[in-house]
Specification:
Elements: H1 2-5, H2 10-34, H3 37-44, H4 51-67, H5 69-81
Length: 83
């Protein structure tokens, strides 16, 4: 959220919040599949990072989720089935 808020764009912040709500159930399950989310977040928010380093960290963030999409989907389906 800090990166999005730093843009100063109200429409971007609003869109980001809407997507966060939609992804909430998956985001809560990520730690079970992805592990060290705190370390990942720290890398994304590193103040001394260059633009290239930030872009690389963001690409890694998305690539990991793409690689693990099936596992995340299975966990989500299992959690919905338990309700």
């Amino acid at each position: 959220m800090q990166l999005v808020a730093a843009t100063g764009s109200r429409p971007l912040v609003a869109a980001f919040r809407a997507v966060q709500v939609q992804l909430g159930p998956v985001r809560r399950l990520e730690v079970a599949v992805l592990g060290d989310l705190a370390g990942e977040t720290a890398g994304l928010l590193e103040e001394d990072a260059t633009r290239a380093e930030r872009l690389s960290a963001l690409r890694q963030f998305h690539a990991l989720r793409i690689r693990e999409a099936e596992r995340l989907s299975a966990l989500l389906e299992a959690s919905v089935a338990r309700r």
